[in-house]
Every structure is written in structure tokens, then in C-alpha cells.
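step=encode ok
step=design start
structure_in=
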């Protein structure tokens, strides 16, 4: 059996917590100091590359764009770590692609915030490359994955709201799915 077959076989056996999750485990992740440094470096480099290539900053909060990219990278990294998949550490300009792919093949987009009562937010631009949206609260080095929603649960007319930074789609945390659903 070649390396590719071994990896494919291992991925097929790996559980997908969005389907077979263990709620008792929780979704609190503490990143190690070296992981935080990697996230800071990749987040800042992504910010520079994106802005330098004319990719519009689509953040929905008032924070600095570079800091939002670092926070987003920390959330993406923590979610990938918890899902037992490798995080996307790519440094190419991108707009609207998925943050990663779970072992099940579901493509995810992790939305990060530092606000405890944050909503799961998305801009009005519909992303065809995403199946699942995930909300993470980040207080470095801690990342708390609060829940998730299928794309059609978030991206619908009834969820259009203006929370102070323009109209977008928003779901409150009590409407999110847990990781045992």
C-alpha cells in the first residue's frame, strides 16, 4: 500500500465530530506558544498578501484587519486541530474559499470573534465553496468553538441583520448546533 492509500485509509477511519462528536469532550482548545506564533506569522502574512493583491477586507467588526486575520488564523488552526485535519497554512491571495475540509469532505469556514456573546456572521456574498460555518471565540491562547450551522441555516433571508457594521447574515449562539448533533 502506497503513502497516498495509507493516508486516504486513515482519513476514512477518522471521525468527523460534526457527525460523530463527543459533547462531553467540549470544544475548548488551548494553543501552545509555538502554535500561537505560527498563527500570528501566517495571519499577518496573509493580511499583507491579501491587501497587497487587492483582496477586500471583508471583516464585519471594527478591529484592525491584520489582528482580525491573526484571530481568524488562530480559530482556523484550533478547529483543524480539534477535527484532526491539517490546517490550511497557504499564503496565496484568496477571497471566499473554504478554510479547510474535514475528513468527511465537508468544507468549513471558521468565523472568529473576541466577544463572548458573538453571533455567527457572514457577509451577504454567498460562498459556494462552504458547507458548514463554525463560530469560535478567541482569547489567545484559548479558543472556544461555540457551535456550527449548515450553510442554508445561516444564509437565509430571516437571518439578515445589521449589528452595527453593515447588513450580513447572523445567527445567535443559541441557534447554533452543538458538536453532538
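sequence_out=
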Amino acid at each position: 500500500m502506497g503513502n497516498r492509500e495509507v493516508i486516504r485509509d486513515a482519513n476514512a477511519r477518522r471521525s468527523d465530530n460534526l457527525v460523530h462528536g463527543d459533547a462531553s469532550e467540549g470544544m475548548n482548545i488551548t494553543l501552545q506558544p509555538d502554535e500561537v506564533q505560527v498563527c500570528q506569522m501566517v495571519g499577518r502574512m496573509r493580511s499583507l498578501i491579501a491587501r497587497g493583491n487587492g483582496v477586500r477586507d471583508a471583516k464585519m467588526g471594527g478591529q484592525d484587519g491584520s489582528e482580525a486575520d491573526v484571530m481568524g488564523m488562530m480559530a482556523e488552526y484550533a478547529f483543524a486541530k480539534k477535527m484532526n485535519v491539517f490546517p490550511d497554512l497557504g499564503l496565496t491571495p484568496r477571497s471566499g474559499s473554504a478554510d479547510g475540509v474535514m475528513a468527511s469532505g465537508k468544507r468549513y469556514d471558521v468565523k472568529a470573534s473576541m466577544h463572548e456573546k458573538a453571533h455567527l456572521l457572514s457577509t451577504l456574498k454567498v460562498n459556494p465553496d462552504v458547507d458548514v460555518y463554525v463560530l469560535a471565540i478567541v482569547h489567545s491562547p484559548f479558543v472556544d468553538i461555540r457551535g456550527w450551522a449548515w450553510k442554508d441555516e445561516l444564509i437565509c433571508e430571516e437571518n439578515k441583520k445589521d449589528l452595527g457594521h453593515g447588513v450580513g447574515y447572523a445567527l445567535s449562539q443559541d441557534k447554533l448546533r452543538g458538536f453532538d448533533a
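step=design ok
step=annotate ok -> The chain has a mean pLDDT of 82.
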